[in-house]
Prior knowledge:
The protein is an alpha/beta fold. It folds into 3 domains: 2-28 and 122-287, Rossmann fold; 33-120 and 290-365, Ubiquitin-like (UB roll) (Roll); 382-455, no CATH class. Helices cover 30% and strands 18% of the residues. Helix 12 packs antiparallel against helix 13 (405-412). The protein is globular and about 60 Å long. The model is unreliable at 1-10 (pLDDT under 50). One iron/sulfur cluster (SF4) binds at residues 377-383, 393-394, 397, 426-429, 431. Pfam families: Complex1_51K, Fer4_7, RnfC_N.
Amino acid sequence: MFHLISNLLHKGTFSHGIHPDENKHFTENIPIRRLPFAPELVLPLSQHFGAPSDLIVHPGQEVVRGEPIAKAKGFMSVPLHAPATGRIKRVELMPTAKGPKTPSIILEVYPGDSQEVGYYYERDIDEMSQQEIIQAVQDTGLVGLGGAAFPTHVKLSPPKEHTVHTVLINGCECEPFLTTDHRVMLERTEDLITGTKILMKALGAEKAIIGTEKNKMNAVEAIQKHLPEDGSIEVRAVQTKYPQGAEKMLVKALMGLEIPSGGFPSAVGCGVFNVASTAELGELLPKSQGVIERVVTITGPGIEKRGNYMVPIGTPIRFILDQLGFSGSANCLIMGGPMMGSSVSSLDVPITKGSGGLLVLTESILEGQHDQKSYPCISCAQCLDACPMHLNPSQLGKLANKHRYDEMQSDFHLMDCFECGCCSYVCPSGIPLVQYFRVAKSSLREKAARERANAS
Ligand code: SF4
Ligand code: SF4
């Protein structure tokens, strides 16, 4: 058996990167469990990259589980489906993990209902054309469940000049603490293979590779048992290293190809999809169902019942914490993992389609962090050695301090930074480099938007 597995270990990786403590042992061996329905679900109309969904229900209206409640507003948008049978209570501004309040549907869940999905029909994927599949994918409301929340159907429509020959399924899950994708690969393997075949058909790709890291070899074994005999789908384990799960890093590790600066994977003939999104697609598309729930890793020293939970979209964090045992405050919460996640401002923030993890810290850990000071750069170059994009974070940090954002962009490729946080992690002076870069990028984006508005 070991010989079989060792053959599946792929040597490839990318240069630089870091090895933070994984902390996955808290949840990686716990099977997915279901959380009950909260009395009220909070459903932001904007929980994906692109235009917010358009409301198609009104307060007082009854809806059944799975019914569309908002439609896509154009191509760069997706619809929203009712995660539970109940009544639309109101539409109001509610906080989200991203920060600003956003228009959200408040759905009152009927407590005595069986909560069977009441809105679906079966269909034969083999009978569908590529274009029909792409439209059907948009109709599911599926977005990247790994955190980016980029609409999946848009990824299935690459520029005409690009030919996608290989679908890469990203099961690396390199963020410390998170084990959602790991459990999905173990427990939803058949859906994963079905979803992979659908993606291949939609893109006209001949080959697919499911990529994971060496710390998840039981997932490799599980997938291996379900692979089609024609060899069109492979599974490979690459080195365990952060941020191996970043799109550019995975393409480099599995294919040896470099995605050009500012470009998409399709520029090098690849389409990259998260493993949980792919399994979801494999389950939903044959039944014409929408995304109404997702697996979330709920973990960290501040939560009693850690694990991976199937959570209805829209479940407020407050409800989850009440169910699983927690006594801290909203300051202790990070939506996502410790490297790329964002701190949560309110316990009213709901789980959305892009929420793969909820990391719960304690007040004492936070106090320790607040005591940490930052010191001047000592030019040790550790940040340069860590940056997977081969940028110069030290120089970028110095320019950010002087608000020389234009220079950061033109001379030091700021926009190639994907905010992985490796530079901040290794910096012995404790300089919050990645925070500086987020501020600088946001300032540059606002400036560009102002210039566009002035020109029109
Ligand atoms: S946050 Fe940006 S600059 Fe820092 S290591 Fe990651 S990609 Fe490089
Ligand atoms: S790691 Fe920190 S101290 Fe070292 S060069 Fe980079 S910014 Fe300066």
